[in-house]
Amino acid sequence: MMVTQQSNSQNLHEATFQKLRLLLVEGKIAPGSKLNERELAESLNVSRTPIREAIRRLAADGLVELITNRGAIAIQLSLENVIHTFDVIAQLEGFSGELAATNISNTTLSELEALQYEMMASYARRDLSSYYKLNLRIHHLINQAADNPVLTQLFSQVNARIEALRFRSNQDGVKWEKAVEEHQEMLDALKARDSVRMRNIMIQHVKNKRDVVVQLLKAELPAKAEAAKS
User: Fold this and answer.
1) Most buried pick, 37, 125, 134, 225, via CB within 10 A?
2) Where, residue-wise, is CATH 1.20.120.530 in the chain?
3) pLDDT tens figures, 108-159
């Protein structure tokens, strides 16, 4: 009985963490906003204990900042920091792709093909939330296929800082279509075991994301400046 209760508690805490993470990634909790434990507990229909644990985990992942006398704040990166972070993740993804093209198993390749098919279906429905979840799984699977635990750890840590921005980068229809095409190119390069091509595709893919995000953030600057005056 004790084991069942403990398992149920762990499942609840994990589900709460994933729900809260998704709220941050999809921008439903805006960057710079305070995470109110009471309100979150009410909206997710849980006690404040799993909320507190989820916030601690999100802080460790770099999605929120724990600030003395202010509490937990959704991370808000400066434009310069965003550019630097994307430049780093581009190289990490490029290295992941290069190693994956050499080390990937046929089983993992088949799994990636299945995920690509599902992602294309989400794209056809213009279901951005489902598309992004599948997209993230593909990027993580490529990273895991590289078979380098240190690289995997670095990728997870750095990528967490810009997940919400990567999600937003697909809200431009033309750019979203381009990203879908690039994912097919990744799959083709992996099938061909072409490590050089795969590295170049991954780096360019992330740099294209960076450029879209920078454009979005720059477009928002005048509105934010005006709001700060009022």
Assistant:
1) 134
2) 79-227
3) 999 999 999 999 999 999 998 899 889 989 999 999 999 999 999 999 888 8
The domain 2-74: what is its CATH number? 1.10.10.10
Chain segment 158-167, per-residue pLDDT in tens: 888 888 888 7
Where do we find the tokens 């095409």?
181
Superfamily of the domain at 79-227: GntR ligand-binding domain-like (1.20.120.530)
- Residue pair 24/164 in contact (Cβ under 8 Å)? The answer is yes
d(CA 134, CA 123): 10
> How far does Cα 18 stand from its chain's mean position?
12
| Across 26-30, 45-49, 51-55, least confident range | 26-30
Q: Quick one: which H or E segment has residue 67?
A: strand 64-67
Total-model pTM: 0.79
CA torsion angle 64 68 71 74 (round to 10) = -20
